[in-house]
Amino acid sequence: MFKGIYNGRQCHVADIPAVLARAWSAGVDRIVVTGGSLEESREALAIAETDGRLFCTVGVHPTRCKEFEENGDPEGHFRALLALAREGVQKGKVVAVGECGLDYDRLHFCPADIQRKYFEMQFELAETLKLPMFLHMRAAAEDFCNILAQNRNRFRAGVSHSFTGSAEDRDKLLSFDNLFIGINGCSLKTSENLEVLKGIPTEKMMIETDSPYCDIRNTHAGMQFVKSVWPSKKKEKHDNDSIVKGRNEPCCVRQVLEVVAGCKGIGDIEQLGKELYHNTCRVFFPHDLDSAANALLESGHGVP
Fold first, then answer.
1. H/E/C letters for each residue in the chain?
2. What global pTM score does this model have?
3. What residues bind a divalent metal cation 2, as annotated (predicted)?
4. Low-confidence ranges of the chain (pLDDT < 70)
């Protein structure tokens, strides 16, 4: 979509530079480009190499897990993933394994047993390269949490992104010390979603866009708390000064922050943003926190 292509039809010219410029202007500091297949992960790494503020993941989405077996060589496919992830780590660009997990809402793309098999295999990537995990869970909380529990010592941290589950699902995820819950527009559709959100401690939360998907729409319960808006136009009338209607962008993470603050009754939105960004750095950029802590120690001020 950021190349201007929607359902196979070219609607406007590629506009990634304008999208990134809006993100940086909105206060976004870094962007993690998500890989959902081996080929997508290669593309994500190529994009990440174009800007010092861009990073990426390497992994296979649950709905794509049949790709492991398409050429009759699952181990070879895994080795290709591992080689790509290792290359990206050496370049300082790959910050997580994923997007991987379980999606029982879309079993027409990939059966549950295939999803489970190759979800579990991807923990080997995290263990070998000492990477956190960028996780996907949809309508599969019991199996997902069972697999996490069996492999909890193989990954140092992770986030279950785009969370849309129940209070029970939320509490299962919160039982893992090294796991965060990722909130975006899809997490904020209904009043029930907002009630579940209230029970997620901010110290166990991250915010995201999952763009170009999961925008916050006028029909969403969370819209009542949104304050930041950008001019928008239909894709056929695109220009670089406007966002495309129905296409989410990284700048809109500000809206997610506003909904979380409003829903939880938090008045200091800037402090909330700092806390959630700190959570993100703890998982994906821990060397930054180490550097900051070392600088404080060297200055004689200690570590906050």
1. CCCCEECCEECCCCCHHHHHHHHHHCCCCCEEECCCCHHHHHHHHHHHCCCCCEEEEECCCHHHHHHHCCCCCHHHHHHHHHHHHHHHHHCCCEEEEEEEEEEHHHCCCCCHHHHHHHHHHCHHHHHHHCCCEEEEEECCHHHHHHHHHHCCCCCCCEEEECCCCCHHHHHHHHCCCCEEEEECHHHHCCHHHHHHHHCCCHHHEEECCCCCCCCCCCCCHHHHHCCCCCCEECHHHCCCCCEECCCCCHHHHHHHHHHHHHHHCCCCHHHHHHHHHHHHHHHHCHHHHHHHHHHHHHHCCCCC
2. 0.92
3. 136, 161
4. 290-304
